[in-house]
Amino acid sequence: MKVGLFIPCYVNAVYPNVGIATYKLLTSLGLDVTYPLNQTCCGQPMANAGYQHQAKNLALRFEDLFQGFDVIVGPSASCVAFVKENYGNILKEEKHLCKTPGVIKDVIEFLHDDLKITSLPSKFPHKVSIHNSCHGVRELHLSNPSERNMPYMNKIRALLELVEGIEVVEPSKIDECCGFGGMYSVEEPEVSACMGNDKVKDHMATGAEYITGSDSSCLMHMQGAIDRNNYPIKTIHAVEILAANL
């Protein structure tokens, strides 16, 4: 299986350790992983701000850069969901067969659904609280949404529980938004910050040492609330835990 590693721009710029952990974990599982150079933004910020036409060239570049891979894997539920759910519409007027939406996967989704891993060499002797991000829950189905009458299912939790020494918990408002929302945090900063504080407090009420999840953007937003208020908790991407001892 030929894997193309997609590292979103903010992961590359702010959390490169998440990209490194993703690469280490995938290669440790015997996969042929390639990181295409000169990656750029997938176009989500422009499209979310209402400038979808300005995301077209980025979508075409993404399509060209990642052609020929059996699967594209990225450590960002929101960016993966954007490609999967929006590229077809963005490129519908182009004379171009849009292929990446059919092969792109979030790393959690890929490990759980495709590889179906049942063991990991990782150790992480800490209590962690899962942040179920909006895109991950409602577009990638990494967990079942609380508003629907469905049996409990959480792919992040299933993978984390393979890690030795870990204690996994979830907040009372299990999949409430953290308030980031990309452009929302720019356009409504006061409300966004309030939601972030509330979400961090909900995680802290579990007694967890760390907040974890599949979206560095959400974790970044909550880390800002933590830093401003000196809260006794940290954030860490789920893939960093899964690759903790590699």
Task: Write up what this structure looks like.
This protein has 246 residues and is of the alpha/beta class. Helix content is 43%, strand content 12%. It is built from twelve helices and eight strands. It has helices spanning 9-14, 16-28, 44-48, 56-65, 77-90, 107-114, 134-138, 155-160, 183-187, 189-204, 216-229, 238-242; strands at residues 2-5, 32-34, 71-74, 104-106, 127-131, 167-169, 210-213, 234-237. The strands form two sheets. The protein has a four-stranded parallel beta sheet, with helices on both faces. Strands 6-5-7-8 form a four-stranded parallel beta sheet. Helix 10 packs across helix 11. The longest helix has 16 residues, at 189-204. The chain is globular and about 55 Å long. The model has no long low-confidence stretch (mean pLDDT 93).
